[in-house]
Amino acid sequence: MYPCMEIHLKKIESNARKVHEIFKPYGISIMAVTKGFTAEPRIAEAMLRGGLEYIADARIKNLKKLKNLPRQKVLLRLPMMSEAEDVVRYSDYSLNSEIETLKALGDAAKKLGTIHKVIIMVDLGDYREGIRSQKVGLFVKEAVEIEGVEIRGFGVNLTCFGGVIPEQTTLQRLVDISEEMRMKYELTLDIISGGSSSSVYLVEEENGFPDGINNLRLGEVILLGKETAFGRRFDGLCEDAFILKTQIIELKDKPSVPKGKIGRDAFGNVPKHEDRGIIRRAIVALGKQDVDPSGLIPMNENLSILGASSDHLILDLSKDPTGYQVGDIVKFYVKYGGMLNAMTSPYVDKVYIEDDQLDEDEELLLVEDI
């Protein structure tokens, strides 16, 4: 059935293995971030076959799905106090920045007869989650007194909210803060986590990662083959592990500019249209209820996306010489947002391809080449 997301598990496994091999010599472990595909176990297992050391997700519901996989689990989103018991039950580590939440986790851990490990998030300028650097000492001083939890790491988030690019000097600050806290409070630190897929480019820079960074939390670079600081393909990884397919349901020549007084569309926006005369327009069975159109890249470079409503995606086929017909299949590469939307949508079928043959000399298809 269409629309469907075609997921190539061998390509995901290959990407994970290459990433693992790149960072292992630097002593950097990798958390396999599973939130982009709702923690579907088959995809998570493909990532783990590539050698990744941890499973990480933003939602406890997703970690519950993966509870039987033999890796330590990490909750990426700051815990809600209302889910403290489940956080302790289903994750080995959680990322934290609030004392009251740590107290709730400690109470839950004592109830369950265990110790919950926490990674303290430090805000180094992106201004999403984390403790401002000058206040980390006071926070840790109070946190180490909380029974039931144990500080086992420090981490930073960059790029995701403020767009701040990870730099060697920024990550060195994280290392310095972590080392100061370790010595002052006699902490045992397992993890100094230097960010996500936006940090991986540093391995190719002259200065690279500072000594002390020993972990990254990676999803997009493994799933879609791109580092996210600059949007570049990373070290020969496959970019076509996820392909979104759908079917043409209408194909007609129509004016490029709607006729009549223009008001707001179904989503409250006032659309703007370029007058290009009569164009060949296709409607495919895919809409904003399934995916954000900005997260799609047509595999056929002659096609362009004109816009979408809840259930319809409108394409311009005017430059395509191949002669699409009603019922033909149109394929799209997905960006991270497109993958996330489509994998979450119950209206997009998921098809898992197990038998991709990846040859070392195979020419990988690049989004930039399309």
UniProtKB/TrEMBL annotation:
The keyword Isomerase applies. The keyword Cytoplasm does not apply. Residues 7-220 form the Alanine racemase N-terminal domain. One of its GO terms (cellular component) is cytosol. Its cofactor is pyridoxal 5'-phosphate. Keywords: Isomerase, Pyridoxal phosphate. GO terms for molecular function: alanine racemase activity; pyridoxal phosphate binding. Gene3D superfamilies: Alanine racemase (3.20.20.10). SUPFAM superfamilies: PLP-binding barrel. CDD domains: PLPDE_III_AR_like_1. This is Predicted amino acid racemase. It comes from Proteiniclasticum ruminis. The lineage of its organism: Bacteria, Bacillati, Bacillota, Clostridia, Eubacteriales.
